[in-house]
Amino acid sequence: MPRKYTRIKTFEKEILEMVKNGSTQREIAEHFGFKDKEVVRGFLRRERRNQKKIITGTVPKPKGRPRKDGLLSQQSVENELKRLKMENELLRDFLRLAERR
Prior knowledge:
By secondary structure, the protein is an all-alpha fold. Helices cover 63% and strands 0% of the residues. The radius of gyration is 25 Å and the shape is rod-shaped.
């Protein structure tokens, strides 16, 4: 019985391995119980597009809006650290000047 919905990313490694071994999209879809080969075809199309971006040097962006749970990207963490260091230096300089008067 075909599945109605499955997160195909969970089978990513197995699907790519089957493609390397020469399996057709239809065979892969039947193996995992997908409704039709279009699911596999779309996955392979997206995967190839991402691989092309990686080869050309551009980083594929995650799909959708950024998370609101407070998780920051590495770049924003580095920027925040730079900002805090700069504030710390300014406060230290201010306190040094204020004590001299």
